[in-house]
């Protein structure tokens, strides 16, 4: 019997096979294949550089602004890709769910791992540009993995909620698209947080785990000239709040998913 | 007579008072307008009771059949056993490992090669990559697809896909196997192979749950059979009995739907001479819709014709079972009939075994060149029997004897 254990050998083998298949299918028939995973962020950076640095001349106050921007977008894209891909994952794999007993969460995890791999490739590109532009890497960079774990927990929690909810409420895909668009602008990604004059609003925006994580990652990797949650609240312990939000969202996601998973086969 | 299970023997699967209901949305809200209008109204649901209070036990090492018509709940039962559905009430207890799938080739992707699909499907069935690598050659060999493994699955014929899927599925080393009508697909050579495997599995002492409506397969393999009808258990029987009960249920069902079926048949021909009426008499009594003839008893078919009186005709009949298999095709070649005659075809001892049969009537000219009237599956013949110990489709009325000098 398939054990309900993430770390069981069987589940890991299945997870791996699902992720590999996903990757194979994604680049099937394309000439450059997997290299697109690297080419996409490269060209994306080029566009960002041209638009923001050459034409609009935004963010001149921040050192290494193009990489700063790229990092923010890469982190955000990881969140957006994970959640929007996971949203339909359970429904899209209805064929499996109706016909075979596998742990349902594996489907969501596999789509999040696909996004994670994409993200790591993107980070490789970010790294190249960091070296190229001579970014100011801080010693606090050792905390970066924790930031990534936080983002992953948050994204996974939201993904579990969305994928289980989508089985019943098919409007969710459209609603989530709109929310993601709105949230993109509510998160300091394109603009430096300093353009927001209201201090309270700054404080509020950084309670969002994504906002806090992106700003912290930027401080660690690119420049100390980044407004972080610790500075906005003048209290380093405030960092715990968005992390707690991520944990709570993940817990809620797990609970809701587990409750709904029993009825996936008949509701899809 | 239902068989009771021996309490001392360990059960592989115990199903206790299981019910399963589905909530089907009453009205689908498709337009934006209806969504807005109905937003505050509670959505209405229709509850469909797929299974009601079903209990049975499957013993270890048993070849257990589940039969029933479409909509009887047998697929739902299988999904409950597989753990794909959760029962609304009651409990399913499984002792031992169970194949997790109810269909072959789950997760097969047409865009992947045969080889890639083997590994993906294997992972879904619980094998890791190493195990699959060890099994790979056997799988391919059994499926007889050595030359095709690097081709995409979409270029496979459906028979090839089934062979590959079956070949992977039988590697699963679980104590209990769930099989859902795999025999309906594949050519006869492959079916024979499947039968051999089933026999081997049975001899290995594995527990097999086999869901089907193929009574021949049931009689051939199953030790005991659960008969489901409209979501309710009709009891667990020996294969011969189960087969008879299944047939009786089919007869009862067609009584209810008889009127509908007649209008669904097709009719064509030049119309020079047409069949006016076909009346069936069993044991001297006219068979009305819903009544059944009996195996071994006389059956008479009385024909009356309309149309051109001067034409001589030949009548051909086809007796088909529900799967469309032609069981018998008597004709009147050598006899000369015309309109006005009361034409009778008499069978002294009906050799059809219990079941539902369709009768097609075709009227030709004497030279068999022109088809005057063809009434496809125009009549339904239900057959029952007194004995439950009859297997197959036809009865030979043979006699056993022994001599000892």
Could you walk me through the main structural features you see in this protein, from its secondary elements to its overall organization?
The complex is a heterodimer of chains A (268) and B (405). Chain A is an all-alpha fold and 268 residues long. Chain A is 71% helix and 0% strand. Chain A has one domain. The mean pLDDT of chain A is 89. Chain B is globular, with a radius of gyration of 26 Å. In chain B, the strands form 4 sheets. In chain B, strands 9, 12, 14, 15, 17 and 18 form a 6-stranded mixed sheet that branches. Chain B has helices at residues 32-38, 74-82, 114-124, 129-143, 158-169, 188-204, 215-221, 239-263, and strands at 11-25, 45-59, 63-67, 89-94, 176-180, 207-212, 224-229, 232-237, 267-268, 273-282, 285-286, 292-294, 299-307, 313-321, 326-328, 343-347, 355-365, 371-384. Chain B has 8 helices and 18 strands. In chain B, helix 3 packs across helix 4 (129-143). In chain B, strand 7 and strand 8 form a beta hairpin. Chains A and B meet through helix 1 and helix 5 of A and helix 3 of B.
Short description, anyone?
The complex is a heterodimer of chains A (268) and B (405). Chain A has 268 residues and is mainly alpha-helical.
What overall geometry of chain A do the principal axes of the alpha carbons give? globular
Shape of chain B: globular
Mean pLDDT over all positions of chain A: 89
Unreliable runs of chain A, pLDDT <50, ≥5 residues? none
Class per helix and strand makeup of chain A: mainly alpha
Beta strands of chain A, count: 0
Which two chains touch over the largest interface?
A-B, 26 and 29 residues
The CATH homologous superfamily name of the largest domain in chain B equals P-loop containing nucleotide triphosphate hydrolases
Question: What sequence of helices (H) and strands (E) makes up the elements of chain A?
Answer: HHHHHHHHHHHHH
Low-confidence stretches of chain B: 1-5, 258-264
What separation lies between the terminal Cα atoms of chain B?
Answer: 40 Å
Tell me, rounded to a whole number, the average pLDDT of chain B. 83
Total of helices of chain A:
13
- Specify the CATH architecture of the largest domain in chain B: 3-Layer(aba) Sandwich
The strand count of chain B comes to 18
Helix content of chain A: over 70%
Question: What percent of the residues of chain B sit in helical stretches (DSSP H or I)?
Answer: 25-40%
Please identify the top-level CATH class of the largest domain in chain B.
Answer: Alpha Beta
């Amino acid at each position: 019997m398939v054990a309900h254990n993430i770390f069981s050998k069987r589940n890991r083998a299945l997870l791996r096979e699902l992720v590999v298949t996903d990757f194979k299918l994604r680049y099937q028939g394309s000439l450059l294949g997997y290299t697109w995973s690297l080419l996409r962020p490269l060209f994306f950076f080029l566009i960002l550089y041209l638009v923001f640095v050459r034409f609009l001349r935004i963010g001149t106050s921040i050192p290494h602004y193009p990489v700063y921007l790229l990092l923010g977008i890469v982190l955000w894209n990881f969140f957006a890709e994970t959640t929007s891909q996971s949203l339909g994952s359970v429904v899209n794999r209805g064929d499996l769910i109706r016909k075979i007993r596998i742990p349902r969460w594996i489907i969501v995890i596999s789509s999040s791992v696909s996004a994670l791999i994409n993200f790591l490739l993107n980070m490789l590109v970010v790294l190249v540009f960091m070296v190229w532009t001579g970014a100011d890497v801080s010693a606090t960079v050792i905390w970066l993995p924790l930031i990534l774990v936080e983002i992953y927990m948050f994204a996974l929690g939201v993904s579990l909620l969305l994928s289980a909810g989508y089985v019943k409420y098919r409007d969710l895909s459209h609603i989530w698209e709109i929310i993601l668009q709105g949230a993109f602008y509510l998160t300091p990604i394109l603009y430096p947080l300093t353009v927001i004059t209201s201090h309270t609003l700054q404080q509020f925006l950084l309670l969002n785990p994504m906002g806090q994580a992106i700003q912290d990652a930027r401080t660690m990797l690119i420049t100390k000239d980044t407004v972080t949650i610790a500075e906005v609240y003048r209290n380093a312990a405030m960092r715990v709040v968005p992390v707690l939000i991520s944990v709570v969202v993940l817990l809620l996601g797990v609970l809701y998913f587990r409750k709904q998973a029993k009825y996936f086969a008949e509701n899809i | 007579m239902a068989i009771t299970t021996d309490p001392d023997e360990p059960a592989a699967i115990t199903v206790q008072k299981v019910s399963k209901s589905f909530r089907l949305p009453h009205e689908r809200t498709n337009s934006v307008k209806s969504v807005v209008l109905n937003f505050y109204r509670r959505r209405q649901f229709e509850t469909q009771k797929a299974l009601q209070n079903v209990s049975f036990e499957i013993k270890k090492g048993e070849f257990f059949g589940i039969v029933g018509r479409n909509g009887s709940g047998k697929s739902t039962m299988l999904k409950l056993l597989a753990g794909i559905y959760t029962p609304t009430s009651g409990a399913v207890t499984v002792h031992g490992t169970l194949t997790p799938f109810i269909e072959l080739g789950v997760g097969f992707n047409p865009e992947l090669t045969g080889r890639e699909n083997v590994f993906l499907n294997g992972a879904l069935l619980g094998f890791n990559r190493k195990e699959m690598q060890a099994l790979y050659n056997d799988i391919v060999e059994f499926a007889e697809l050595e030359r095709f493994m690097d081709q995409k699955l979409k270029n496979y014929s459906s028979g090839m896909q089934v062979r590959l899927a079956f070949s992977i599925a039988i590697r699963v080393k679980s104590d209990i196997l769930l099989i859902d009508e795999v025999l309906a697909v594949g050519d006869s050579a492959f079916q024979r192979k499947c039968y051999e495997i089933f026999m081997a599995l049975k001899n290995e002492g594995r527990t097999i749950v086999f869901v089907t409506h193929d009574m021949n397969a049931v009689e051939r393999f199953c030790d005991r059979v659960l008969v489901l009808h409209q979501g309710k258990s009709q009891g667990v029987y020996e294969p011969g009995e189960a087969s008879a009960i299944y047939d009786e249920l089919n007869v009862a069902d067609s009584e209810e739907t008889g009127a509908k079926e007649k209008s669904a048949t097709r009719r064509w021909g030049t119309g020079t001479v047409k069949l006016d009426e076909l009346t069936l008499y069993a044991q001297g009594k006219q068979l009305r819709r819903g009544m059944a003839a009996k195996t071994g008893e006389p059956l008479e078919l009385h024909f009356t014709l309309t149309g051109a009186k001067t034409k001589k005709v030949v009548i051909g009949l086809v007796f088909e079972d529900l799967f469309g298999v032609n069981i018998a095709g008597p004709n009147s070649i050598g006899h000369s009939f015309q309109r006005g005659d009361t034409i009778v075809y008499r069978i002294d001892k009906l050799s059809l075994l219990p079941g539902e049969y369709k009768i097609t009537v075709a009227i030709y000219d004497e030279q068999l060149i022109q088809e005057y009237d063809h009434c496809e599956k125009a009549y339904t013949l239900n057959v029952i029997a007194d004995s439950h110990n009859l297997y197959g489709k036809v009865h030979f009325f043979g006699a056993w004897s022994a001599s000892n000098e």
